[in-house]
Amino acid sequence: MNILLVKVTLMPLVIGLITIISRKWGYKVGGLIASMPWIAGPILLFFILEQGKAFGIRSVPGILTGIISLISFCYCYAQLSKRFNWLVTILISYLVYVLVAVVFDFFRINLFAIYGITLTCVVLALYFFPVPADHQPQAKRLPFDMVIRMAVATLFVILITGLATILGPTWSGILTPFPIITSILAIFTHYLQGNSATITVLRGLVSGLFGFTTFLFLQAFLLREFSVGVSFLLALIVNLIINYIVSRMW
Questions:
Q1: Which whole number is the average pLDDT over 61-72?
Q2: Domain residues of the chain, as ranges?
Q3: CA–CA separation, 59 vs 48, rounded Å?
């Protein structure tokens, strides 16, 4: 199987699907669906196919560190979107993502500790998340926005997986949850619908990180005992159950 071909065909389909869901069922549902391992799952799979299963397992702690950075990105973008345009907001949020990743990578926290810290960060982020305003500005229209979203997502995935050999398992893992879908959703929602809609979609995404984090955490154990397909399937079922519970509680 040509892995590059999979990358350039799967990612456009994923981002297109999430965009359609967001438009049909709203920003909250769109954010929750976007938190599923649409990007991180395939990237981890590509790591395993290209670098071996041991590389994939060693990258899991780094991936969890990356999720903490992703939470920081979402919270930062939600806060800044109330005052700045999408370009300033995204650049500062990317900087926050990298800084948080560097700090946590310095301490080299073990798997169980980083899993607990990540879940705690999700809870704290949701507690302090900004509240969207009741007023929603009239939505703008952007020609070919679906095509642009698909192209950006594909380029991100190709770049991150292509750098895996140079970066090694730790930083490859940290960059796995890099806000690809999140950036696309945040930027386009911010520009087209305003900051209130952006806050809603990002809060939905953060709430879905309980399941996403658990999906990745389980790979460190399931991949040792089962095939890649079975490991991903079992963890995905757990991810879906957690997301359903969260959606009912929220």
A1: 89
A2: 3-19+26-249
A3: 10
